[in-house]
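We emphasize that the prediction below concerns an isolated chain of 411 residues; any contacts that depend on oligomerization or on bound cofactors are therefore not represented. The input was used exactly as deposited, without trimming of termini.
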Amino acid sequence: MAGPLPLGDPAPTDGHLPVDLPIDTSVPFSAYLHIPFCTVRCGYCDFNTYTSTELRGAKQEDYASTLIAEIALARRVLSDAGALRPLDTVFFGGGTPTLLPAGDLARMLEAATGAFGLVEGAEVTVEANPDTVTPAVARTLAEAGVTRMSVGMQSAVPHVLAALDRTHRPENVRTAVAAAKDAGLAVSVDLIYGAPGESLADWEASLDAALELESDHISAYALIIEDGTKLARQIRRGEVTTPDDDLQADMYELADARLAAGGFDWYEVSNWARSSAGAGSGDNRSRHNLAYWRGNDWWGFGPGAHSHMAGLRWWNVKHPAAYAQRLAASESPAAGTERPDDESRTLERILLLSRIREGIAVEDVPAGNRSRVAGLMADGLIDPVAALQGRIRLTLRGRLLADAVVRELTD
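Result of the prediction step, given as a token string:
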């Protein structure tokens, strides 16, 4: 299970938004649907997930109906606020969404579509464990309106998967991707690098295997040790070693080179999309994740899910049982809310926008820090041509040191 929820102000039990919230209905709107169930919790994971022994009265078979009740609440709240608009993206994340029957996912999507509508060409993504994807599952999802599947590959090397407590069979990644493609879905695969005992050669093998899948999108995330996880405890006890920063940097550089050679363009520090002839990588980028990085509006459905609307943030109670109890009582499942001040929002905007390829305008950096742009150029951290044209875009070296760039622009 994830760590404690953030501190904040109490959330209204009816879920209503503040009357002075400056909602702009021209801002794209997204939905995140959290499916909090896993067969086994991976040792590195601190997401809000639950195995069957941790549900304490909540039932997976009731979950779709419970989440649909929150969708109905969201429609009432947004209608009252004059903020109804069609969904630009929908994302089923977890947990393992495909642990639920595909029909349940289809019901939730139908409810969201009925409540809000979808813009033409909307992106609808389902995360999937390779062992849970069959041709029938992929077809059902595609027929329901899903357009994209994100397959949790993580590694192609058995001992690396074991170090991460991943239980899927490596060969099932290929069959899952094939099933998704046959159903007409776009495909993304997720990788993790820097696991205990993983060598550069291991990582190279995983990259090669991912490229052989001919997916549309690849994410590659450095392993981060989160407090409270099994992996953090193993490191503290000296059972495994902490990921090596230099090795992870080498792995990132190898990923960028291999993926570029394989026809992928980076568009966010940890994400690459396959170039489309005559269209650029934009056709295959994750529009849902771009919505987060650009600070658009979204409603997060499900236990522990976070939402954002015009600068207001709120988050739901964590446990599925508490979540279900709130909705059964016709109450909002929101546990807390916050409205960051202008300084905090500026910091967050720089933190997020600096990570994507389009970067951030120099004029959006606090005036007192703009003089540091020249130093970032001299250090090879940002593109000098773009900077002279008024935009801050990370170089490869800058992507490796993205946090340092953000500190220079905000401290």
